[in-house]
Amino acid sequence: MNSPTAWALVFHVVGFVFWMGGLMVATQVMAAESVETSAEARRALERLERVLFKGVAHPGAAITVIAGIVVVAIQPAYLYQHWLHAKLTLVAVLIALDLMAWFRAREYHRGVAPLTRRFAKAIHGAIAATFLGIVILVMIKPF
Which of the chain's termini has less CB crowding within 10 Å, N or C? Predict the structure, then answer.
């Protein structure tokens, strides 16, 4: 299967792997940073967090969304499948969670908002649950 759809799906999946991997690690780094007492270690964690968001997760999200649009443009019949509607809803939730984590981290680094381990773990869990929901919808296509 060497079709344009197959290639778009390859990029879609690879982008999704980078997006999820970056988010999952970045939120763990946020949790570690929130309880770190050393200023030097917090600065190092902040740099790592920035790389994970800007260099892994957000480029992965962009590739995922662009490739997903290409898949739907090539195969418009997907738009009539109910599992895709549910998946797109979860993707919107995932984007919101990503932005919540990103903006909270930025606000924390500017000194205008707190960063707690509880918040970082909660957003990590919500991202993981959303990821699982997306994978189930894509693999099982329950409706």
Answer: N
Question: How many other C-beta atoms lie within 10 A of the C-beta of residue 109?
Answer: 16
Residue ranges of the domains in the chain? 4-140
Contacts of 118 (CB under 8 A, 6+ apart): none
Distance between CA atoms of residues 124 and 121, nearest Å = 5
Record the tokens describing residue 40, joined without a space: 């030097």
Neighbours of 105 (CB within 10 A): 23
